[in-house]
Amino acid sequence: MNRKLYLAVLGLCFIVLLCGAPFMKAGEEAGVFTVRDLGNRTEEAEPYEGTFADGALNALVGVKNALTRLYTDYMPGYYETVFAYGKVRDTLNAPTSSLYADMRANAAKTPETPAEPDPVSAVDTLEAGGEDQTETPEPEPVEPVDPRDQVVSVSSTLLTTTGTHRYYRIDAEFGDGFQTSFLDTAVVLTDKSKESRVTMQAKKLNRIAAADPDVNFHFMLLTRMQDTDYYEDVIVGEESTGKYADLFLSLLDERITAQKWDIGTLRDRVERVYLTDHHWSTYGSWLGFCQLCGMICPEHEPVALGEPIDFPETRFYGSAARTCQTLDLWDPFRVYDCDLGTYKCSPVWKFDRQVKFLAKQKYVTPDVNVYAVFFPEVYKVEYPENHTGRNLLVIGDSYTQGFVELLGSAFDTTVAYYYTHYSGMNYREVIEEYGITDVLFEQFSDRILFDIYGDDRLSAIVLD
């Protein structure tokens, strides 16, 4: 009897889990209820290439990925179980993790030793006239390093590996005494795949730029740390993707004005990008705005940064924190009250109203993407008092959220298309409808260089 009862309970649990995930997904899509999730990011597995059954194998991989997402994100109790486990794990590991981080950081501190002078042989002295007439060369001037940028120590720890990324926790200390920990990634693709993807993506972008030669076409590569020169010093053993970023830029048509978003030092990385996420912070986006103005409209004076506004009751767990379940590491959420003047958005979005709303909340768990809550997608921004005679079309990804209102201050009208909406976009019709004079294409380098998530949909933009 006990055995039958046990098997019956076990079978019931199996049926609930098997049917529960599709039920939860269908219910959320129908708007009946909302499923709490950990913000797992969909990542494309490395495709099969060069086999006789590439199509069938890649189709099977797609089915596997769909089932994996269904039976994780929508599994009944998944969020509660994972969150509870992560919280207990981090609480128990906190003392050891802190000690380990200090040990790694101290071990990485390498005191500089003065270089030994080149020895001067006795023969050299005699040939010079019998006496030591060796002239000491004057040392070349060394540019002083700003203590803010001076890296005293840095170390990294591998946390987890997904289909396309390795995730690391980095501990760093700078010359001014500032210490921090943050999360970053390494792309898991072969060199051959990286190069072929970069070449294909550049062709797609060139095709878009060539569709209407009468507009000014601009491109900004939204840099990640792996695209920088210092990356290999931060995560030893991983290779920089900087050469692929340079390759991509070199393949772009001459009529495209292009640049990389600047995170040229490790200090830039921790100040301009969220510590637990891949997006630029609100400070970083303002710097990106200033950089873009220099490229697109150098005559425009960018608005000042404005006063910072913090939300001490809120924690922002970025995509990397959610993937790695590092609940002991989050970002404090900060925005800036820039004086943008008179403008209107569609859909309606008002900075002051968002500040008041978020100030009343207490988001402290990873199931809420605070960045997306404060900065929803805005599709049109109008500044009626500008009279610049220029209208901008932004073709971007989620970096455009919270940025298009700021960037729009340099134009009369700004229209934004996010990568999730490329499929419904007729490029030339949009340009004609809004009198577009300038186009800005901007995407996160993972997406535009390698189409790492398989979701950039550039080929779906209608150009004919």
Give a description of the structure.
The structure is a single chain. With 464 residues, this protein is of the alpha/beta class. It has 2 domains: 2-47 and 55-79, no CATH class; 190-460, no CATH class. It has 15 helices and 12 strands. It has helices spanning 2-29, 54-73, 78-108, 122-127, 191-210, 231-234, 242-251, 266-272, 282-296, 319-324, 351-359, 370-374, 404-407, 427-434, 445-450; strands at 151-161, 165-174, 179-187, 216-222, 256-260, 307-316, 331-337, 344-346, 380-382, 391-396, 413-418, 438-444. The chain has a 7-stranded mixed beta sheet with strand order 5-4-12-10-11-9-8, sandwiched between helices. Helix 1 (2-29) packs across helix 2 (54-73) and helix 5 packs parallel to helix 7 (242-251). The N and C termini lie far apart (71 Å).
Blueprint of the fold:
Elements (H helix, E strand, L loop, with lengths): L1 H28 L24 H20 L4 H31 L13 H6 L23 E11 L3 E10 L4 E9 L3 H20 L5 E7 L8 H4 L7 H10 L4 E5 L5 H7 L9 H15 L10 E10 L2 H6 L6 E7 L6 E3 L4 H9 L10 H5 L5 E3 L8 E6 L7 H4 L5 E6 L8 H8 L3 E7 H6 L14
Parallel strand pairs: 4-5, 4-12, 10-11, 10-12
Antiparallel strand pairs: 1-2, 2-3, 6-7, 8-9, 9-11
Q: What's the total count of β strands?
A: 12
- CA-based shape: globular
Q: Which percent range fits the helix content? A: 25-40%
> Within the largest sheet, what's the order of strands?
5-4-12-10-11-9-8
Nutshell version of this structure?
With 464 residues, the protein is an alpha/beta fold. 39% of the residues lie in helices and 18% in strands. It folds into 2 domains: 2-47 and 55-79, no CATH class; 190-460, no CATH class.
